[in-house]
Amino acid sequence: MAAATPTEKTARTPLMAGNWKMNLNHLEAIAHVQKLAFALTEKDHDAVETAVLVPFTDLRSVQTLVDGDKLKIKYGAQDISSHDSGAYTGEVSGPMLAKLKCTYVAVGHSERRQYHAETDEICNAKVRAAYKHGLTPILCIGEGLDVRKAGEQVPYTLAQLDGGLKDIPADQAESVVIAYEPVWAIGTGEVATPEDAQEVCGAIRARLAELYSQELADQVRIQYGGSVKAGNVAAIMAQPDVDGALVGGAALDAEEFVKIVRFRDQ
Ligand SMILES: O=C[C@H](O)COP(=O)(O)O
């Protein structure tokens, strides 16, 4: 499988996204985004795209702050309903997220797959819903420990990629963000080695080339997620097919997250 060359990599702007998960209420969200905005410079924004994926209850506050202060921090949600409206208690729709001017929405995070029984079919419907309403999906894929121990991480993850992108046309898929998150490395402190991350991220890019074209594969950003911190981000980002990170725990500490955004300085 052909991996991207470093030259192709430079054409992709790194995306550092903080997934807050179920943390920070709307007041804490404002304080946190203000800290990020204060710390991040024009130089940072030119070099790296920074985003926060926040709880639904925080979105309006974050939108007001970002709009009001014309911040360059992007924001989005952690999930999206596959339905546009109707009797779906507890769900939040694409039109609602679009109205809040979300840029991104995470789809198929392993915690959604594990605790909410989200299948590849459901993820595919959510990817469609995101594109239908002008949102960019961050499709999360990755294997559990049993799969890793069996050495099946590449075929397992590629099957999730195929399922999530099933019948998604190239003019949409060209903007997708793929987050490779080995489940065994999430919140455990067990970070995958840079070589582990590259093995699967390289395979994902090669598969995108097979599904679409090399040109499309070369422009899609592939993130690594799983216990990313300031201390390990540089080595992971040095891999040719890793274009950013989806950061959980470390994104709750504004100073740490800013260091991750400045991965080149670490
Ligand atoms: O979405 C983020 C991932 O689940 C990684 O979380 P973590 O950085 O706390 O391991």
Summarize the structure.
By secondary structure, the chain is of the alpha/beta class. Helix content is about 45%, strand content about 15%. It has an eight-stranded parallel beta barrel, surrounded by six helices.
Features:
14 helices, alpha/beta, isomerase, Aldolase_TIM, globular, 8-stranded parallel barrel, cytoplasm, gluconeogenesis, single chain, binds glyceraldehyde-3-phosphate, glycolysis
Walk me through this protein's architecture:
The chain is of the alpha/beta class and 266 residues long. The protein has a single domain, classed as TIM Barrel, CATH 3.20.20.70. The protein has 14 helices and 8 strands. The chain has helices at residues 6-10, 26-39, 42-47, 59-68, 94-99, 110-115, 120-132, 145-149, 153-164, 170-173, 194-211, 214-219, 230-237, 254-261; strands at 15-19, 49-53, 74-77, 104-107, 136-141, 177-180, 221-225, 244-247. An 8-stranded parallel β-barrel has the order 1-2-3-4-5-6-7-8, surrounded by 6 helices. Helix 7 crosses helix 9 (153-164). The longest helix is centred in the last third of the chain and has 18 residues, at 194-211. The chain is globular, with a radius of gyration of 17 Å. The mean pLDDT is 96. Glyceraldehyde-3-phosphate (G3H) binds at residues 19, 109, 181, 186-187, 225-228, 246-250. This is Triosephosphate isomerase.
